[in-house]
Specification:
Strand content: 35-45%
Number of helices: 5
Largest sheet: 12 strands, mixed
CATH superfamily of the largest domain: Fumarylacetoacetase-like, C-terminal domain
CATH class of the largest domain: Alpha Beta
Order of helices and strands: EEEEEEHEEEEHEEHHEEEHEEEE
CATH architecture of the largest domain: Alpha-Beta Complex
CATH topology of the largest domain: Fumarylacetoacetate hydrolase, domain 2
Shape: globular
Helix content: 10-25%
Bound molecules: magnesium ion
Length: 251
């Protein structure tokens, strides 16, 4: 199943996608929302971020080659940080470059969408039960600020620094996907989720031992190598096989 959120007639609705058509859902898809009303062509609606997370939990350096390009080791345990929900934007929304940074980077990532609350899970199987689906996420980062500061919060949390979408795909093997990032059509990143250091379900379980994950929360699984700068006027695309293409302009 493929779900989304969309704006139509001044309302923001969850939807389910079938081919090029979308129908509204009566509730969140993970809460048993059922299709209602007419089917619209996807071209007639504006897709927005497919979830409204209470938090976005991310992991640093979950691919060896990316850790190496930053001149760092892979951490012994997952290195967690949070992007605030206020950083989330949807497809086609602008990534705003802050005055405080001279070096903003793209980071293409696969993100899990939680469908059930999860606390203190110890196995990948428990995590798998609680994950609803998968989406594309761009962990936009002010690299100069990240280098200058010990904590990631400021570098990762500017408004618009978390593009998500375009859809959530429930039928995806998260260990068998290809992640590509293009800037103005030119490929910058191409990675394979099988190269993750920590399996995404074990990552979700690990995080749930720290904080309760709630339905709609996002867990981003780290970026492969090839991160690099974006500048005003660029178009950034994150494409994950089986999900789709998340496109955002830099403004
Ligand atoms: Mg990242």
């Amino acid at each position: 199943m493929r779900t989304c959120r969309f704006r139509r007639g001044g309302r923001e609705l969850y939807g389910v996608i079938d081919g090029h058509k979308v129908r509204a859902l009566t509730a969140e898809p993970w809460a048993g929302g059922l299709p209602e009303g007419p089917a619209f062509n996807l071209s007639e609606v504006s897709l927005i971020a497919p979830v409204v997370p209470s938090k976005v939990v991310c992991v640093g350096r979950n691919y060896r080659a990316h850790a190496a390009e930053l001149g760092q080791e892979v951490p012994k345990e997952p290195l967690l940080f949070i992007k605030p929900s206020t950083a989330v934007i949807g497809p086609d929304a602008g990534i705003r470059l802050p005055d405080a940074s001279r070096e903003v980077h793209h980071e293409a990532e696969l993100a899990a969408v939680m469908g059930r609350p999860l606390t203190c899970a110890t196995t990948a199987a428990d995590a798998r039960e609680a994950v609803f689906g998968w989406t594309c996420l761009d962990d936009v980062t002010a690299r100069d600020i990240q280098r200058a500061e010990k904590h990631f919060t400021r570098a990762k949390s500017f408004d618009t620094f978390c593009p998500v979408g375009p859809v959530v795909e429930t039928d995806l093997d998260p260990m068998d996907a290809t992640i590509v990032c293009r800037v103005n059509g030119e490929q910058r990143q191409r990675g394979f989720t099988k190269d993750m250091v920590v399996d995404p379900y074990l990552l979700v379980a690990f995080i749930s031992q720290v904080m309760t994950l709630l339905p709609g929360d996002l867990v981003s699984t780290g970026t492969p190598e090839g991160v690099g700068p974006i500048k005003r006027g660029d178009w950034v695309e994150v494409e994950i096989s089986g999900i789709g293409v998340l496109r955002n302009p830099v403004v």
